[in-house]
Structures are given as C-alpha cells and as structure tokens.
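ENCODED BACKBONE
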Amino acid sequence: MVKCPKCNQILEDNVKFCPYCGFTPSAGANKAQQRPAPKSAPAKKDVPKKVKRSGGLKDKLSKLFSKKVIIAVVAAILVVVIVVLLCATAGSGKKDYTLFIKNKELYFSEVKDDDSLKISNSLVNNSKYKPAEVDTFSQYLSRYCHVSDNSKKIFYIDSVNSTKGTSTLYWRKLTNLKKEPVELAKNVVSYEISENYKLITYLTLDGELCQHNLKESQKIAESVSLYAVSEDGKMIFYVTDSGDLYLKKAKETGVKLDTDVTDINAMEDFSSLYYVSNGILYKKDLEGEKAKISAGVENIVAIYETGEVYYIKTASSEQSLMDYIIDDMKEIDEKTEAPVQPKQPYSWNYASNAEFEKAKVQYETDKNNYEQANAAYTAKLERDKIRQDAAAGPEEIVTYSLFIHDGLKETVLADSVYRNDYEVSYHTPVIAYKTFDSKSISKVKISKINSSYEVQEAVEKAFVNSVKQYIAVGNKATLIENTDACRFRFSEDGKSAYFLERNFATEDQYNLYKVSLTKEKAKNPKLYDSEVSNEGFELLQNKKIKYFKNVKDGSGSLYINKDEFDTAVYTKNTYFHDDTKTLYYFAKWNSKTQTGTLKTLKGSTVESVADKVHIYQVTPDSTVYFLTNYSNSSYSGDLYSVNGKKATLIDKGVSGIIPIYNKDIYKTK
C-alpha cells in the first residue's frame, strides 16, 4: 500500500493517480486536467501516441469502477444513507454539518438540526450505475464536492452520468439554505475553484473551457483537451484537440505558445511550464521564451521547484521469439520430407516360401528405416510449429529510458527501465527504478527445445536475472544490491528511504531496509527489521516508519520504529493525523461482522474510541465520525461523532462515511 501525499488516503501500489483526490505523481506540479478524447478528432500522425496520466470524470470513474477501492465498507445499497463529511479548516466558521446521500439524492444537514435539505435532483441518472458500486462512487463524489474555507459556500455536482463522464455543476450559500442553488454548467467533466472561491474554471464534454464568476459564465476556448489553472484562477494553460498550447492571462485573449503538444506540467506557483511538443521537452517561464530541454520525450515523470525534471523517452522495435532462437536445423529440415511407409508382405503374394521370407527380412529393414525417418520428420514438424509460433506477430516492443535534466544538463539514468517501473519522491528529486539488459539474453538453439514456451521461459528468466535496482538522488545513481526491492518510501527531506524485500524462505514476510541518502549517492542499505508484512507499510511525518508483523487474516502486531504498540491490529484503514500526531486504527477486526474496536495511538499511549465500529473518518480538527451497530443485512449502522470523551448520535441508517477535505489539502488537480 502507498499513501497519497495530497489527501493521505491509502492506495494500492503502482497506482498512477489517487482516485480520491486525483493527485498524480509529478512532484510540485500543477497537473493538467484532461477531457475524454473526442471520437471525431483523431490525433495527428506526427504526434506521438501516449496515455495521458490525468483525466476527467469519465476516465476516473471508469478506473474506479474497474478495480476494488481499499476502504473498510462492503457493497452497500444506494437507498441507504451515505454520509460525506464536510471538513472546514480548523477555527473557521461552523463545522458541524454533513452532506449525505439518501434515496439516491444528496442532502445537507446541520448536526444539531433535525431538518435536512435535499440538494440534488437526480444525482445518478444513468441506468448502468450499479448499486454495489456506491462506496466507490461516494469516494469519487467527495472529490467533486467542496466547501469554502469560511464555510459559507458549497460547490457540488448533480446528474452524474458515469457512462458519459459528465455532471451538472452547482453552488449555493450555506448561510441561507432556503435560497435555491445556482446551476453553473452542464456536461462538466472537470473543474477547478480559485483560492477565494469566486472563480470556477471548468471543462465540458464537448471541449468548451469556461470560467464562471458566480454571476455569469465566460467561454475561454473550444475543443480543449488539457488545461491547468493557477490558484487564483487568473492564468490558464490549455491545449486544444489539435495540440495547440495557449496561455490566457486574466481578461486577456489566449496567446498561442506552441503546437503538437501532448503533455503539460505547470509549477505550483505558475512561474513556469514544462511541456512536450512533437516529442521535444520544453520549459517555458511565464515571462520568458521557451527553452529546449530534450528531444524524443514521451512524457514527464516529475518536476521540482529546484529545477530538476525526470522524464521518459521511448524506442519501439518489432520483435518475435525467433529473434532469440538459433535455427541450427533449418537446412536439414528444408530437405526433410515425409517418408513413405513400407507395405507389409503377405505369403499369398509370393510364388515360394523362400521369396516370402526374403521379403519379410527386407520389410523389417525398411520398417526400421521408416520409423527413424518418420521420427525425424515428426521432429521437423514440431520445429516448424515452433518457428510458426515464435514468428507470430511480430510484436511491437517499447523500451523505456529514464532521464533527468538538472537545469543545466541532461543525464541518462537508465537505457532500459524494467517494465517502465519506477517510484518517485514527491518532495525532493529522488527516484527508485529497475533496469534490465537485453544484451544478456542469450539465444537458444532450436535443436535443444521442444516448444516455443521453452524459449519464452528462457527469455523471461534471462530478462529477470538481468534486472538491477537503482536509487538516483538527482542525477547521481547508485546500484542497490537488493534486486527484489519494492515499495520504496522516501522521507520529505530527501535524507532517507525505506523499502521491502521479499524473504522467500518464509511465506508473505519481508525484510525491511533503510537507506541513507546524500547529494552524491544512496548509501548501502541496512537491515532495519525482519519478518515484516507487506501490508500497512508507510512513513509517518518523515521520521516514523509504521509496519506490521505476524499478520494473519489481515491483522497483526503494530510496530513503529521497531517498537511494538498493539496486537491484533487491522492492517487496513489506519490514519495518521499530522497536527495531533495521532494514529487511528482498528483492533480485533471481525471479518464476518465487518467491525472492530477503534483505537488511537499518540506517543506511547493507546486509547479506545469505540467498540463495534464499521468505518471511521477524522476531520482536520480531530472530530471522529464513525459507524457502529452495523448490520450486514441492511448495510447500515448508526453514525456518531466524538471530539473528546462523549460520542453524539448524528443519524441512523448510515452505510458509509466519506470525507470532503478543505481546499488547502484536497484539490481537484
């Protein structure tokens, strides 16, 4: 598992973006929003094909509904209440309210008020939506519902169509709930809110990029496929379907910057933009000319405020398994023909017994020769089958090369990145990656194999045996002897990294290593602990490493920095509250009832919050909301809140709790 650095949700390993907040792994960057590709606008032939790593509503819904989201709730029925906690910044305005789904609609309710206001009119309006996916949809919904820092405004979506990837965008005042909501736009696929909550930038399904100032809407451009907007909403980089890149400032008309653009990354402060045009990576300072960084670039991996940028170049070639076979039997097989089977002699075909006996002797000789020739011919046919199978295709093989530009020069870190597999730090220019050496894969003689599968196995074995693990600090790469290293966790200050390595002598247990990082190299990894589970492994506040041991049925002993603090702890659904330095977790989790004891760990003190809890969430001001008395038949329970010792009942018949964070830590970028 990994932890999203933006919203702190726990994610599956190797995810390309966070399904809860949309954060993508380009450190320090303002990633572009992307609309679903229009069917009527095919890409230019001279534009490199690529999979863009950030998307609109349709892209993210399709990803969410196609995989299991790791949350501690089972499939729920949509008619049951789903609560979305709206968490304002601590100390700003009222915070005691909920946004929840009931009878397929969105409701707003103050905690101390029995009355609830229905906000949406048709929250889910397409028949393909499955009730069993309600929890996944609720997590996604939290990304598109926002409350202003002063708790006076709410922005939300209605009429969500997961098939088309669209929704209708609304806003309304929370200080006057009797006033009707204001519709901002229909067919919206993504949107951004300015830091003062007075300017909304949004993209529609047909490619219209617009801005709304809560009074009227202004169209910025048409046929837009990508865009990135500044915090104040006054500057926008956008790319059209034809690949033209524009910059729009305040009330000015958009200025064309370049053509054939396929990827853009803006710095958080919008001081500069990195983008790929016709395979060339450029850096464009806001007030300066563009500067070429490198050619043949496929996509940007990560950019940093200190000037470093990691990026990928690709090379493609057509290969087949025949490229790994030495056909040492080709000439012989070309001359080998199917033998003719000799006819068995019978006595009535001969005039004398002596002639018959002579024919029998000759038949045995011919039979032996036939069997040998037939065996050779059968082997030839088998080799022909190997040739046919191995030559099938040929397939296009893409090789990924990893580069870094430090602001002054380009350095190649790896000519061949293993399966395009890398893990990058979001805070400092540090990256872990595996390489492979295609030259180390030796060919196999066709006379020594019985099937194309043997070739494939030999190639894969040689491929894996050639893999090497590296950690690069900036442009300085260090070889790590632990080739099976995985799940790297980097400290925010860039001074250390942790990783796991499978201990194949034991089942589902790993060795935990720590690596000290300097500006020049990664020092030799040192064994930090052993028999560590691969579940629940994460860094807390840059210095504390949390992990589990003795895990069975999803629960085990909780460790932080080698110290054991509790047993029978559920490895999933742990949450660390940075401000209070408190870890929240489940103990004695019951998989049948889907409940456990909710506990906290602060310093060395362990305390229980509540028993038989199904799911919980913690707000920025440390209010804990949790479901108890949960029923597996109705998929619902009682919702409580607690901020101190006494818990308060909020509502009954609740099936899930999903937070909506304040905009400072939870953005739609």
Observations:
- DSSP finds five helices and 48 strands in the chain.
